[in-house]
Amino acid sequence: MIRGFGSDNFSGVSPEVFKAIEEASYGHQHSYGEDIYSEKAIADFKAIFGQDIEVFFVYNGTGANILSLSSFIRPYQAIICAETAHINVDECGAIERQSGCKLLTVPTFDGKLNIGLIQNHMHDFGNQHHVQPKMISLTQCTELGTAYTPEELKAICDFAHAHDMYVHMDGARLANAIAYLGCTPQSLTSEVGIDVLSFGGTKNGMLFGEAVIFFNTSVKEEVPFIRKQLMQLHSKTRFIAAQFSAILKNDLWLKTAGHANRMAQLLASEAAKIPGIRITQAVQGNEIFAIVPREKIEQLQKECFFYVWDENASEVRWVCSFDTTESDIIEFVNLLRKELC
After folding, report:
1. Exposed e or buried b for every residue in 124-142, given b needs 16+ CB within 10 A?
2. Within 13 Å and on the Cβ side, how many CA atoms surround 244?
3. Structure pTM?
4. Domain 252-340 carries which CATH code?
5. pLDDT (tens digit per residue) in 208-247
6. Where in the chain is CATH 3.40.640.10?
């Protein structure tokens, strides 16, 4: 069976991460983040994003998003997000259950919010009968594989702050956006006004663990208690922190993301040449969305697994990873040709 393109969560763990975990396993360290590895990883993050940040390690992406959002909002407030956002589609209502807040979703064509779309929910402020919009959550790259530019992000952040709102970035694939845009990490976060970032590691070569980075540190005193109640405080935090130091060293996180992006571009360009396949979104990260003849999908999945994205449209999603190879692409494209041509 050909290596699948179902998700970058399907991928393995980078050798650098395994080595870091092994090194962190020797000897004893203080628990709950009071260890030299956590101190080192936080310093590594500050070297990339600036000194005026607060960093908290968590187990997973859902936990990172809940901690990010719950730190700023109250249960009578609401979060505006794209209809396709991970916090709306793929987190089993965790955000609404744990924060008590309502998600106000917006249909989009490419997964990206803009001020015009956000304004659809900007009403009834001060009306005690309605939830109060307080936060905007953006996904970078989006769930449709597209990337916000710094200019787009700044416009949304300026709009939010002018209305006394906060902006969260779900950065599970932030590295892919940076690699695609060729910009600096700060130009997509602190410089444009992002208040809090869920920083992804699992989709980019780590075994487990994510980080929450607060650029707006006004809530920093409350965050440790919120994290503990959310069951996201890892006793042996050093095993999350050591992994981050490994992928951040020498920009490994950006190199691996850039490789995944290039593999996605290669797959998209080759697949688009095959009759019956139509690429539906701009390929700006490591995800490809394509229309595939409905009657061919099941057989293709048996030989190379991937997910159906939109059953009605016969649209599928292919995801490349840090360890996807050109050979993987060639094998899959040959399979597509065999089944469709």
Report:
1. eeeeeeebbbbbbbbbbbb
2. 30
3. 0.96
4. 3.90.1150.10
5. 999 999 999 999 999 999 999 999 999 999 999 999 999 9
6. 15-250
